[in-house]
Design goal:
Layout: E1 8-10, H1 23-28, E2 34-42, E3 45-55, E4 66-72, E5 75-80, E6 87-92, E7 97-100, E8 106-121
Parallel strand pairs: 1-2
Antiparallel strand pairs: 2-3, 3-8, 4-7, 4-8, 5-6, 5-8
Length: about 130
Amino acid sequence: MSQNYPYDTRLDVRFGPLELIDVHAIAATVDHPWFNQTLCEVNQAVVRLGVLQGEYHWHHHDVEDELFFVLEGRFFVDVETESSSEIESVELGPGQGFVVPHGVRHRTRAPVRSLVLMVEPKTIVPTGS
């Protein structure tokens, strides 16, 4: 990543087809407060695991949508509404997901350690456009 951000973001694809993916085993090895690992590729998309606690910076993606799906913990997605610069916060718990469409300025927050799956095109730059 070209800029220095306080995140541990790993864009390498860790698992190939026909390999078992154990997110709890991966999470057990993580001690960084904002860890993101690309797990696998599916067609033209990637699935990433976030082991997260804290806050990400405000950003947007020009052409890619993002899905956030919470496995454990509590996770917030803050978005700026198109009609105004007001902030809308969506709280997600285990088993809940939310899609941020491309072009929408957003940030994510996890007040407690959370496990989150992200599905997005493999062309995405996680820190934003």
